[in-house]
Amino acid sequence: MRGAMIYAPGDVRFETVEDAKILKPTDAVIRTAVTCVCGSDLWPYRGAEPIGDPHPMGHEYVGFVEEVGSAVTSVRPGQFVVGSFATSDNTCANCRNGFQSACLRREFMSTCQAEYVRIPDAQGTLVATDEVPDEKFWPGLLAVSDVMGTGWYAAEAAEVGPGSTAVVVGDGAVGLCGVIAAKEMGAERIIAMSRHEPRQKLAREFGATDIVTERGEEGVERIKELTGGIGADSVLECVGTAEAMSQALHSARPGGNVGFVGVPHDVAVDGQELFFSHVGLRGGPAPVRRYLPGLIDRVLTGAIDPGQVFDLTLPLGEVAEGYRAMDERRAVKTLLKP
Ligand SMILES: [Zn+2]
Ligand SMILES: [Zn+2]
Hints:
By secondary structure, the protein is of the alpha/beta class.
């Protein structure tokens, strides 16, 4: 089979890779329906994370079950399935507490930009749709496997509630999905921080009521102006840089909350400052598995359309161009079709 491999910063190749096959009775193999490039794939692509030996890439997927191991009874060949970027048995204590992305058996998916994918712990990881959904829903369901689930978690961690004011730091796919989540959770005012016009437009379509183009402390000042001088109830940090985190922490009001889902790179939080800010802070890889049934339903009923974050569609074989387009900010997110 063929799939993407990263060799070095800026060097992603589509080539023959090891076949996806059942290695354990708890595995399944799926045939990829659509997959994509994630903002977090850009960290190694840009040299911000070590790459080591050449390795496969990709952790977002929807597909058709091709084969299941002997211990897998919840899904069967032919079904259309959505899974999370983190595998989970969905039965251990952490899973039962709703933190499937901290499953005691967790593995992070990393081979999904390929024609076929092995899914560990398929029984707990995969959710099948009732029937094969119309192709127009595939991008939305693919978004649910990571960015929509992650945006949802950011909003939940930031305790967005009915009538609240939410700020979203980051206008990438996760930030845009965070806007969708804040809207669904009843935020009355949603302030998106974005400098890029097409992304501002999409943020507004998704429910943003205000756009702030300033960054850093200037951005914080703008947020304070818009929130009676105190800051927002909820702030969703969807980038992962020191600047974004500082902007998020300073944009929350005393008693407010920050949900941070951008994978932190060189982010340090000042204990004294956090102490005196009265701001609550929760982050981490999103427990997407917990949200899958609800989000799949929202997509299939048309309540939300997170598939709009894909503004470039390429054949899987052109995956390298998909990375380039995102790296050069010509695309928010690249959808790949095998
Ligand atoms: Zn991702
Ligand atoms: Zn578990």
